[in-house]
Design brief:
Number of domains: 3
Oligomer: single chain
Largest sheet: 10 strands, mixed
Strand content: 25-35%
CATH topology of the largest domain: Aminopeptidase
CATH architecture of the largest domain: 3-Layer(aba) Sandwich
Helix content: 10-25%
CATH class of the largest domain: Alpha Beta
Length: 598
């Protein structure tokens, strides 16, 4: 029996029984007891920079929108709602999500393994519930020497004001349809790649009644030898409009819009703070490697608390079993989720009004979106790149903080001399490091300290590609003396994504030769490339030039162009990924078009 804390200081007593996965295969993969060759891609793509750069193009706002429309159409996704109907209730919703995972697997050599995690709920205030299910998609890793898995998750259930009302219309578009379709989109896009660690895409049930699906799965992992390297939880990640009652840290004024920030929560109160160390690494990896390539420069706000005041989310269930975790949430929430306890509650959260948007001009199309698909796509990119980097990063180093006559010295245990190490230093207040330094070797005397002041120090490893591990837990010490200022880390390991070279190419493009999208796209082995000549000066010989995501030329083909429409069946032997092509003739260059290869 376990005592759990939930928002609004409500205490429940509950227990879980009959926990199981839908196949022994899933259990073996999650435990790391499998042969990676059985799940290998025919053309593996594993470079973290390529994955991150391609993900910026692969995440699709239109796919997010379509999936959210379907998800919102099930009437309610309350955990105690209908499980038999084909089009209403949680049963229909979770079968549909499972079917999408199965489709994503078919599109990626059957490497993504869809399934269910089934558990019973006893002693809940909404009653006992048997055979409820989380939906999982599991992408087996390529290296089982480290068996730990990376979990991307959201809760798929929705609710209205009454916690146990299983029939109220509850579309739950933002809470938490937005997180659900984000995880689905990451399953779709990341399944084409190869990672050392196993990736798990999971949609839980029962979050609204006590983090039930997350707690059941977290306990199952702890009790069955499933090692969890990191958890990325997404809950309310698509809305951009400030409600009147958003829970602290809140937002103001009501109606204000913020589509440029996403908040990240992690526990600041645990011993030596490993959770915020992980959160800092997510943020710093993003700022160093991805932010320079974002078309819209999103900011991650690291909040110095585990969740909004008086509220809770599924990531807490994993902290309870000592698994690293963070929660992503929109900077602006539309409500505090407590319609019954808040006079004149007009916000959307936990009501039938939690919808995608409204059609105010009655033309049959939504013209005012409460869930912003472009913002949601950017949050998906942040999540996906964070998972890709932690899945390929070196192990978090351990270190000793020596208090010496000359100051505080960091000494790396079992230092790898091929690595660099990043050191974060902060005072006791706040969640982020005040200073960052970088060094190579075994030890480093911390600069810029004031005598008799308490400092918290964390360390991360940087491999030869500049890929950073999660930061360690903090070590604490009081500086014995003041030390002179040092050179701070200039964070030089950014990714050079292809958008930069695309802009450069298109800046030189001539408009009188139109390059139409390839058909099909994505394709495998052959694609029809279509060009439309509007100027007879382009007729005659020209070169088709094809580049990879890093701007490296991989193919050149001689063509003969005619005035008007031109069609060329491009047969290629290219590895899976994103490629760019254009026509060149005598110093003239067409616009660039994108080809996605499966």
């Amino acid at each position: 029996m376990k005592q759990i804390y939930l928002g609004f200081l409500l205490i429940f007593s509950l227990s879980f029984q009959a926990q199981s996965l839908s196949s022994n295969e899933l259990l073996n993969v999650l435990q790391g007891n499998y042969n990676p060759a059985n799940y290998a891609a025919s053309q593996p793509i594993s470079a973290s920079d390529q994955i991150a750069c391609e993900l910026l193009n692969l995440v699709d706002p239109d796919t997010l929108h379509l999936n959210l429309q379907i998800l919102s159409s099930f009437g309610t996704r309350h955990t105690w709602s209908d499980t038999v109907s084909q089009n209403v209730g949680i049963g229909a919703a979770r079968r549909w999500i499972h079917s999408r995972f199965a489709q994503y697997s078919l599109e990626n050599e059957n490497r993504l393994r869809p399934g269910y995690f089934t558990f019973d709920i006893l002693n809940n205030t909404c009653g006992d519930l048997y055979g409820t299910k989380n939906v999982l998609g599991v992408l087996p890793g390529a290296d089982t020497s480290d068996k730990s898995v990376i979990l991307m998750m959201a809760h798929m259930d929705s609710r209205c004001a009454e916690r146990c009302d299983s029939t109220c219309i509850a579309p739950g578009a933002d809470d938490n349809g937005s997180g659900t379709v984000l995880v689905m989109e990451l399953a779709r896009t990341l399944s084409r790649y190869t990672f050392d660690h196993t990736l798990v895409f999971m949609l839980t049930q029962g979050e609204e009644q006590g983090l039930l699906g997350a707690r059941a799965f977290s306990d199952f992992c702890a009790n069955n030898g499933i090692e969890v390297k990191a958890v990325l939880n997404n809950d309310i990640v698509g809305g951009v409009i400030c409600g009147q009652t958003a829970s602290p840290p809140g937002c103001s004024p009501a109606g204000d819009i913020d589509s440029m920030r996403v908040r990240m929560y992690s526990n600041p109160l645990s011993d030596r703070n490993p959770y915020q160390g992980y959160a800092r690494s997510v943020k710093l990896n993003y700022e160093e490697k991805i932010l320079p390539n974002m078309k819209v420069p999103m900011q991650i706000e690291l909040v110095n608390q585990e969740d909004r005041s008086g509220r809770g989310g599924d990531h807490i269930a994993f902290r309870e079993n000592d698994f690293l975790n963070v929660r992503f949430t929109s900077a602006h929430e539309h409500g505090n989720g407590n319609p019954l306890g808040t006079p004149n509650y007009q916000d959307h959260q936990h009501t039938s009004n939690d919808i995608i948007g409204e059609d105010f001009n009655s033309d049959g199309q939504i013209d005012s979106f409460y869930v912003d698909m472009n913002y949601l796509a950017r949050n998906a990119m942040i999540n996906g790149t964070a998972a890709a980097m932690i899945a390929s990063a070196p192990a978090t180093p351990t270190f000793t903080l020596h208090n010496e006559a000359t100051g505080l010295r960091v000494e790396i245990d079992d230092a790898d001399l091929a690595f660099e190490y990043r050191v974060g230093v902060k005072g006791f207040a706040g969640g982020e490091y005040d200073s960052l330094y970088r060094f190579q070797g075994r030890s480093f005397l911390l600069p810029g300290l004031n005598a008799n002041q308490l400092y918290l120090v964390g360390v991360a490893a940087l491999d030869s590609n500049g890929l950073m591990s999660a930061f360690s837990q903090d070590e604490r010490a009081t500086a014995p003396v003041s030390t002179p200022a040092g050179t701070t880390d200039n964070m030089p390991y950014d990714y050079n994504c292809a958008q930069v070279s695309l802009y450069e190419w298109n800046a030189q493009a001539e408009s009188n030769l139109e390059v139409l999208p390839p058909r099909p796209n994505p394709s495998a082995g052959m694609a029809e490339l279509v060009f439309w000549l509007r100027d007879k000066s382009w007729t005659g010989p020209a070169n088709l030039r094809v580049y990879d995501y890093q701007g490296r030329e991989v193919h050149q083909v001689a063509l003969d162009l005619n005035y008007g429409a031109n069609s060329y069946n491009y047969r290629y032997q290219l590895g899976a990924g994103i490629y760019y092509y254009f026509l060149e003739q005598g110093g003239k260059r067409s616009a660039v078009q994108r080809l996605m290869v499966e």
